[in-house]
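Lab notebook page, bench 4
Experiment: in silico fold of construct C2
Operator: M.H.
Input chain length: 382 residues
Purpose: comparison with the prior construct
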Amino acid sequence: MRIFIEPTEPLLFRTGRPFDAGESNFAESIFPPTPETMQGAIRAMIAANTTLVDSSMSIAARFGTDILIKLIGNQSGYGRFHITGLALGKRIEEDGPVERLFPAPVFLMKVKFKGEKDTTIVQLKPKALSGVVSNIPDGMQYLTLPDFGGKELEGKPKSPGWLTEKKLQAALKAQDDFLPQIETERDFYTLEPRLGIGMQNDTKTTQTGYLYQIQMIRMEAGYGFVVDIRLSEESDPGKFIDDSKTQKELGLPGRGWLTLGGEQRAAHFTVLGNTPQEGSIEAQQPGKRVYLATPAYFIKGWQPPIGSFTPEYKLIAAAINNPVSIGGWQLNPNDAGGSGKTARRCVPAGSVYFFDEPVTVRQPLTEYGWQIGYGIAYTGEN
């Protein structure tokens, strides 16, 4: 089941850095939201909107019912709930089709040559180099820029930003050194600083030294988040039920509301129907490039575990940006308290692994959070 979430207010997605009153005065916001943030918002949305339990019950009470625990889990598990797709989305016309957007693969670079007006998208390619000292495993190759034919670069290469689903599929399959201009999507949100000050509850006066600033995200009209939700079979957790039955089993209406991110900002959701397969990036074939659409956590840092691919892989190169630290907040549903989750250094979305022969991804490519959207991976033919 695919849903489209459209924010109606500025959003706040906190980073993993502590923000304690009186100690920190600036709270950053990250974008897009992490799988931790999205799974919490969606499971709360299901609890708030489902017709399977008494609508007069509080959300906390609903989470305690046996029906919901089996479907979406509780504090200790996720039940039959799975997130199998997570992306940005844009809808140009009201009630029109929704197009998904993904982070550009890291091996793509936007460059500008001296004397030329337009930028060009090029791709880094694995190449064996001699005389290079590195701490990467033996036998792995380095990513190099193509030969520019004597042209000189103006400035540093940059990431092209975000790609539509079709552009991403084309980029993962491309063989040419120079790629056609790729549509980028960097104008779908605006950062808005907000100023605040701590208050004393007993006297209703401001507190000295408690001035702070937070960074809010205002998304443009028509932009939001596309999430694919699946339910596993009760008798066989390794298999999904027919996707056409997911909405009915969850008891979700076709439209509704949810809260998203810090400060519980309002957003509207629409059920788009079954998760499309034909022509989508999910209908993937074995390929030599494996692209991460969402962050992934590996015990060995950036290296995926052996056994994640069929056949057994020989990794020859990797295009990876700096790690992202992802934590979260474990809420106590009985009161306003809770505790921080373990912060994990994750391989960021957009990273790509190169192999010497086509491989198939067996499952979400992660050693943590595979059920809630971590490590969603797609292959590209080449």
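Observations: Residues 56 and 278 are 41 Å apart (CA to CA). The chain has a mean pLDDT of 87.
Next step: discuss at group meeting.
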